[in-house]
Amino acid sequence: MMEKNVELKDAKPLFSLNNNVLAAIDKVLQALSMRQRIDQAISETQVTCAQAECDQAMQDQAEAEAALVLADTREEAAEAEKIAVAATKKVEKKQQLLDREKRLVEALYTKAKLADADIQVARDELTAVAGILAEDIRSQLADRLAGIVDDITGIFKQAYAAQSVLHSRSLGGLLSNIKIPNPMDPTGQYNLLDGDRLKVGNGYVSLASEWRNDAASNAVADAFAPLNQARAKGDAHSNFVHPIQRPQPYVIRGYSMTGIDK
């Protein structure tokens, strides 16, 4: 297990995230982080608490004003007035705090919507650069596969040279079913290698005949020539037939080969 882990650690990947994608990822994460900060700030606002305190202060103010109206003596009225004035100031202060919290939460709501828009823009940008990266990889893959096809074409030409002598059903089936897709073809209909059809430029050549223009493939055919010659001689061979079983010359009835009537 350790050896496998070391191999994976030391492996060099063919493809990696480019700077544009990394920047787009960072932009998405920053936008999401800002939205989280806004949500946290919203959760910490004190609108409910400030509203409750303001309501209580207003109730206290109303009770103080009622006590002022119902005072029996000047002394009671003076004391009640002091309490009412203090209650009014408290209401004003609590109302200011409540108004501040309401303004704050509304501002945070607006920022949350703006943050959502920023997140969507960042996501769209990430999708776009990821698509560009995918197309770049597809192009690189096409180049690599084209190089591989160039490398293996010689092998297939030699296989077709051998098949021209062997006429093997299994080998022929294998060669006819070999396909190497063309990554740059979005339809998937045209392959870099499709059976004996090899893509060259904008056209195709047939490996079943193209091998004759390849020195190594001709060497294979020449090496297989004795097999072909032996097979031809074997095909021309006639099995032994006993003289009795061989066809006899035609004899006219009533006559022998010497012409004397039997």
Topology:
Blueprint: H1 2-10, H2 19-43, H3 47-69, H4 74-166, H5 169-177, E1 179-181, E2 191-194, E3 197-200, E4 203-206, H6 207-210, H7 215-236
Antiparallel strand pairs: 1-2, 2-3, 3-4
Helix pairs in contact: 2-4, 3-4, 4-7
Walk me through the structure.
Helix 2 runs antiparallel to helix 4 and helix 4 (74-166) crosses helix 7. The protein is mostly helical. The chain starts with a helix and ends in a 26-residue tail after the last helix. It is built from 7 helices and 4 strands, in the order H-H-H-H-H-E-E-E-E-H-H. It is rod-shaped.
Gyration radius (Cα, Å) is 48 Å
Shape: rod-shaped
Mean pLDDT: 87
Biggest sheet overview: 4 strands, antiparallel
What is the terminal-to-terminal distance? 99 Å
- Helix fraction, binned, reads over 70%
**Overall strand count:** 4
Given as residue ranges, the uncertain stretches (5+ residues, pLDDT < 50) are none
What proportion strand? Answer: 5-15%
- The assigned structural class equals mainly alpha
Number of helices: 7
Strand order of the largest sheet: 1-2-3-4
> What is the H/E order?
HHHHHEEEEHH
